[in-house]
Design brief:
Largest sheet of chain B: none
CATH architecture of chain A: Alpha-Beta Complex
Distance between the termini of chain B: 86 Å
Helix content of chain B: over 70%
CATH class of chain A: Alpha Beta
Structural class of chain B: mainly alpha
Number of helices of chain A: 8
Number of strands of chain B: 0
Radius of gyration of chain A: 17 Å
Structural class of chain A: alpha/beta
Number of domains of chain B: 1
Strand content of chain A: 5-15%
Number of domains of chain A: 1
Distance between the termini of chain A: 21 Å
Low-confidence stretches of chain B: none
Number of helices of chain B: 4
Strand content of chain B: under 5%
Order of helices and strands of chain A: EHEHEHEHEHEHHEH
Mean pLDDT of chain B: 91
Helix content of chain A: 40-55%
Shape of chain B: elongated
Largest interface: A-B, 14 and 14 residues
Mean pLDDT of chain A: 86
Number of strands of chain A: 7
Oligomer: heterodimer
Radius of gyration of chain B: 24 Å
């Protein structure tokens, strides 16, 4: 179906070295894919590099944090009427050649959102440091409990969404360290989420935005957000506004 | 010793603060990021008010013998200072960002004007 429009949303913060390869690989995966790089206030040549490689660039005037940056991409996808969106990080962690696996459940209408999970099966890709893995596991357990479906990787930013997913995230998306809360949100809005096993690579350039002390802070913050969120009234299923 | 009435009033008031903060988060009127310090304030004051022996012990460490609840005031003031300082950093960041936004808007307007004039 060639009239379906697809966009890749690539949040990037100081990723001038890894971006060209990510963009090339996205092209290799699907030449018809529109690529939008969201430059979250980089101080290097991220925006120029992205534009030179033929991507559309949304340049944020200052650093909004990953949540704000990604949501900018979802807004773009929503307003430009895209049917499907994939989100893939600009640091090269996510392998575009695995995109067809992540996209499949969304394309065949099985899910509104598909998430590439590092932990869905025993695999041997990059799985992050020991402490962070512990945090990821703990959050996954809490979230699984709450949403009543087994979720193994709540921190993965390797995702594919259909129009319903795009609309939801364009309207409302959590801030720094957003994926965990977003997962809970998806279920609250009665959208269907599935996980797809993927392997991730070690980041190629740049630095992770999350340091040790910060991850403790995020952990507390995210758990607080989730537990308070539990006492919110259930959200009625939303129809697509368009 | 701390008067019982002071402990009860202190604990109730601090716990009310915690509940108000949680309700504000629930309604989406307060972001978690800004709520954490308030929660820490409320929980610490609740604990210190309710745990009478603890308050007396801490007061003794600091040589406060006549009126242990003074420690409550001190801790409360410390937390308020922390919250205020935090706000100052937040306001500074916001005003910096505001300047950047205004500058970007001016540049953008100029560019749009240019294109409108250039158009046949």
């Amino acid at each position: 179906m060639s009239d379906e429009r697809r966009v890749a949303i690539v949040p990037a913060l100081n990723e001038e070295h890894s971006l060209p390869r990510v963009i090339d690989e996205l092209r290799a995966f699907d030449p018809a894919l529109d690529i939008v790089v969201v430059d979250d206030g980089s101080v290097d040549r991220t925006a120029e590099v992205a534009a030179a490689n033929g991507a559309r660039v949304l340049r944020l005037p200052f650093n909004l944090g990953i949540g704000g940056a990604v949501q900018t991409g979802f807004r773009y996808a929503f307003e430009h009427g895209y049917d499907f969106a994939v989100r893939i990080d600009g640091d090269g962690q996510h392998d575009p050649s695995q995109l067809d696996r992540v996209l499949a459940p969304v394309l065949c209408g099985e899910a509104d959102i598909a998430v590439g999970s590092r932990f869905a099966t025993e695999s041997d890709g990059y799985r992050s440091s020991r402490t962070r893995r512990f945090g990821i596991r703990l959050l996954a357990r809490v979230v699984s409990r709450i949403v009543g479906q087994r979720v193994t990787d709540t921190t993965s930013g390797f995702q594919a969404l259909n129009r319903h997913g795009i609309a939801l995230f364009a309207r409302d998306y959590p801030h720094d360290y957003p994926e965990v809360e977003a997962t809970v949100m998806v279920f609250r809005h009665r959208l269907r989420l599935v996980e797809v096993p993927v392997t991730m690579r070690e980041r190629r350039g740049g630095r992770s935005s999350i340091t040790a002390l910060r991850s403790v802070y995020y952990m507390v913050k995210v758990l607080l957000a989730i537990f308070v969120g539990l006492f919110r009234r259930n959200v009625v299923p939303q129809e697509d506004a368009t | 010793m701390t008067p019982l009435a002071v402990s009860i009033a202190g604990a109730l008031a601090s716990f009310a603060l915690v509940l108000v903060v949680l309700e504000l988060i629930r309604r989406g009127r307060l972001r978690e990021r800004y709520a954490l310090l308030w929660l820490a304030t409320g929980l610490t004051l609740t604990a210190l008010s309710a745990w009478r022996d603890g308050l007396n012990t801490i007061a003794r460490w600091f040589g406060v013998r006549s009126y242990p609840p003074a420690v409550l005031f001190a801790v409360g003031i410390l937390f308020i200072l922390a919250v205020l300082l935090h706000y100052s950093t937040v306001i500074s960041r916001l005003s910096d960002q505001n300047v950047i936004l205004a500058q970007r808007l001016a540049l953008l307007e100029e560019e749009v004007d240019e294109r409108v004039t250039d158009a046949p």
